[in-house]
Specification:
The protein starts with a strand and ends in a 7-residue tail after the last helix. It has eleven helices and 28 strands. It is elongated and about 100 Å long. It has a six-stranded mixed β-sheet with strand order 19-28-27-26-22-25. A four-stranded antiparallel β-sheet has the order 1-8-6-3, with no helix packed on it. By secondary structure, it is an alpha+beta fold. The longest helix has 35 residues, at 84-118. It folds into four domains: 3-100, OB fold (Dihydrolipoamide Acetyltransferase, E2P) (Beta Barrel); 120-213, Beta Barrel (OB fold (Dihydrolipoamide Acetyltransferase, E2P)); 243-295, E3-binding domain (Dihydrolipoamide Transferase, Irregular); 331-545, Chloramphenicol acetyltransferase-like domain (Chloramphenicol Acetyltransferase, 2-Layer Sandwich). α9 packs across α10 (436-451) and α9 (378-392) packs across α11 (525-540). It holds the Pfam family Biotin_lipoyl.
Length: 547
């Protein structure tokens, strides 16, 4: 269904707005959050974003044209949708509004004059800030947070508060400078549009008198002053809050805060390239601006000028083009994601870490590898130690089946192998019956065929326990997700040389951290801890694995 977007009231005193620039054309696709147009208010040029998705079907106010708040700005809907009834409805509504406005002075003129005489006006220099209407359908707003508190000094362009509308939470900046004298709506509270949000003015102002004062209203001026209205309007169009223009007449779009900083630093905005949407100049562009090399005339002029304190070096912020691409997930990647998510969110994981002295293991491995035609890795020793520890702690070698727990009397250790597309886990069948050299040969063969995608499904099925080793990458400690239907997985870190205490003396030692992830449905904490103690005993005394 098509949505009618009206000219929003983007400041508390805005009566009409001018479309400075459209960033979408009729027929363009519009996403929620896209910037539709840049709108000039009575105080600044602001970006107006869409709160709807669809196709831009109609533009009601052309670039450079102004219109009162609530005028038809645009219509967004489905491509090809009939919007004639909406266009006719908006025309009749505007006619009704004109009739109502024309009759207003006749019925309320005398009453308004009596009220004006009965109460004082707001003192000069004091501004009453009202709850703004930040979207075209907003009826009330909630103050999400105040960024200033009573007594703080407020500069024009600074953010006063974050306001929740019916569609988004938006920053609301101050259009005045002064002291925040009063907060009318506390954090978390909601109030209708036009409720008193805050009062800004000179320090020491009587706030009660301001709140009780009657603001002057331009609508109730007599008709005799109509001729005088044209001249103030012309002057208002020259307000410095309007977009700047270069010497060649091109419009420069700049945020109010950026414009203020540029004015203070004496920077010509026409020399700055904006990094905001559609080249809009924002705060960081001004702060990061570095003037180009001076001309000879400028250099001569600068040489004759009195010396001043050196300015602080500008902060140069990177500017680039964002980019991304979407790559279709392989079947392997999707299977890994599905299985690991099921494991993580169905099995209650907990983790146990223990440190192992690998001094004897290093010496034993060297002796074994000195033998002809023999090659054993530390990972092979870990796999062998796990298989032997599982035979002593059968609770860890189990599978949770809901109403039952399956105790596996055989030991099939899966060894995680990284491949280009993800991770595969070839399985060493009956690992407890294999020697260290047999484990070394089998792992090397399985890992090689895994990387070449030559493994059969049977060689990746049936594990009762899994070992994952990232020590070769320098990772000292990590945790893994259980490879179901296993009840546990061991994460193996790197061997690290560090000071250790032996027999009351500090000596250089070689240690390795291993972390056991357990499924708490089948493996209790004490059981997991006992398994790790047995595993450490085997690794610290490798000769026991050769018996």
């Amino acid at each position: 269904m098509a949505e009618v977007i009206n000219m929003p009231r983007l400041s508390d005193t805005m009566e009409e707005g001018t479309v400075a620039k459209w960033l979408k054309n009729v027929g363009d696709k519009v996403e929620e959050g896209d910037i539709l147009a840049e709108i000039e208010t009575d105080k600044a040029t602001m970006e107006f974003e869409s709160f709807y998705e669809g196709t831009l079907l109609h533009i009601g106010i052309a670039e450079g044209d102004g219109a009162p708040v609530d005028s038809l700005l645009a219509i967004i809907g489905e491509e090809g949708e009939d919007i004639s009834s909406l266009l006719n409805g908006s025309a009749s509504a505007s006619e009704d509004a004109d009739v109502e406005e024309a009759s207003e002075p006749e019925s309320n003129g005398s009453e308004g004059s009596d009220e004006a005489s009965a109460s004082a006006e707001v003192p000069e220099g004091v501004e009453v800030v009202k709850m703004p209407r930040l979207s075209d359908t907003m009826e009330e707003g909630t103050v999400a947070s105040w960024l200033k508190k009573v007594g703080d000094t407020v500069e024009e362009g600074e953010i006063l508060a974050e306001i929740e509308t019916d569609k988004a939470t938006m920053e609301f900046e101050s259009f005045y400078s002064g002291t925040l004298l009063y907060i009318g709506i506390q954090e978390g509270e909601s109030s209708p549009v036009d409720a008193v949000l805050a009062v800004i003015g000179p320090e020491g102002t009587d706030v009660d008198a301001v709140l009780n004062a009657k603001p002057s209203s331009g609508k109730k001026e007599s008709s005799s002053s109509d001729a005088k209205k044209e001249e103030p309007k012309k002057e208002a169009s020259k307000d410095t809050s309007a977009p700047k223009a270069t010497n060649d007449g091109q419009r420069i779009f700049v945020s109010p805060l950026a414009k203020k900083i540029a004015k203070e630093k004496g920077i010509d905005l026409s020399n700055i390239t904006g990094s905001g949407d559609n080249g809009r100049i924002v705060k960081k562009d001004v702060e990061g601006y570095t003037p180009a090399a001076a001309t000879p005339q400028a250099s001569q002029k600068a040489a004759s000028a009195p010396t001043a304190a050196p300015a602080s070096a500008p902060v140069i912020l990177p500017v680039g083009e964002e980019g991304s691409e979407e790559v279709k997930n392989s079947q392997m990647r999707k299977t890994i994601a599905k299985r690991l998510a099921e494991s993580k969110f169905t099995a209650p994981h907990y983790y146990l870490t223990i440190e192992v002295d690998m001094g004897n293991a290093m010496a034993s491995r060297k002796q074994i590898n000195d033998l002809p035609d023999t090659k054993v890795s530390f990972n092979d020793m870990v796999v062998k130690a796990c298989a032997m520890a599982l035979k002593k702690h059968p609770q860890v070698n189990t599978t949770w089946n809901g109403d039952t727990t399956r105790y596996n009397h055989h030991v099939h250790v899966g060894v995680a192998v990284a491949v280009d597309e993800g991770l595969v886990v070839p399985v060493l069948k009956f690992t407890e019956q294999l020697s260290l050299t047999q484990i070394g040969s089998a792992v090397k063969d399985l890992a090689g065929r895994a990387r070449n995608k030559k493994l059969t499904p049977a060689e990746m099925d049936g594990s009762t326990f899994t070992v994952s080793n990232l020590g070769m990458f320098g990772i000292t400690e990590f945790t893994s997700i259980i490879n179901q239907p296993n009840s546990a997985i061991l994460s193996v870190g790197a061997i690290v040389q560090k000071p250790v205490v032996k027999d009351g003396q500090i000596v250089v030692g070689n240690t390795m951290k291993v972390t056991l992830a357990c499924d708490h449905r089948t493996v209790d904490g004490a059981t997991g801890a006992q398994f790790l103690l047995t595993l450490r005993a085997y690794l610290e005394n490798p000769v026991t694995m050769l018996a």
